[in-house]
Amino acid sequence: MEDAVARGRAEAAAESPGVRSPAGRGGALVELTATPGGLALVSPYHTHRAGDPLDLVALAEQVQKADEFIRANATNKLTVIAEQIQHLQEQARKVLEDARRDADLHHVACNMVKKPGNIYYLYKRESGQQYFSIISPKEWGTGCPHDFLGAYKLQHDLSWTPYEDIEKQDAKISMMDKVLGQPVALPPCSEPSFRALPH
């Protein structure tokens, strides 16, 4: 009886291509078929092998590499943000210094009404008092009575620009005026139009 069963299995294996016959008498109960019905569904190497310990090592390396990339990426982004913060701190410091200077200059003694757009010359008396004048040291010549401290232009926003920065500041203001003077192209209206509706 056993010989008949074994012979039947051998014949079935010979008729089905890709079927591996069991090894020896009384072999495996279930035959392994790489292509059931002629179709390879999965890789027998991956489905019939024991877990490869190298796979765990490769997975751990991949996770570690991902962690390193994420850390490097975050570091790069934080470095950019830190540089932007430093730049903003510098700008804030300059704004505060300019505001302090402008406030001090507005409290300087002056016997005239200051008008935006004009240049005023700062002098210091022997007593230590500072005052504004519209007469430049060049106009005084050698007879300038007091120490000259500097020249400033009063801007239309009532800020003061040092004489050496006037040209650069005027160029900036001129450029902004050109930008603001250009017509702005409005985007097309996305709201529904009711003009075509019957009354």
UniProtKB/TrEMBL annotation:
Name the source's superkingdom.
Eukaryota
Sequence segments annotated as region (Disordered): 1-25
State where composition is biased (Basic and acidic residues): 1-12
Pfam families reported in the protein's UniProt record: DUF2452
Question: Which molecular-function annotation in GO is an example for this chain?
Answer: identical protein binding
Supply the InterPro entries for this chain: DUF2452
Q: Which residues form a coiled coil?
A: 71-102
Q: Which UniProt keywords apply?
A: Coiled coil
What is the protein name for this chain?
A: Chromosome 1 open reading frame 50
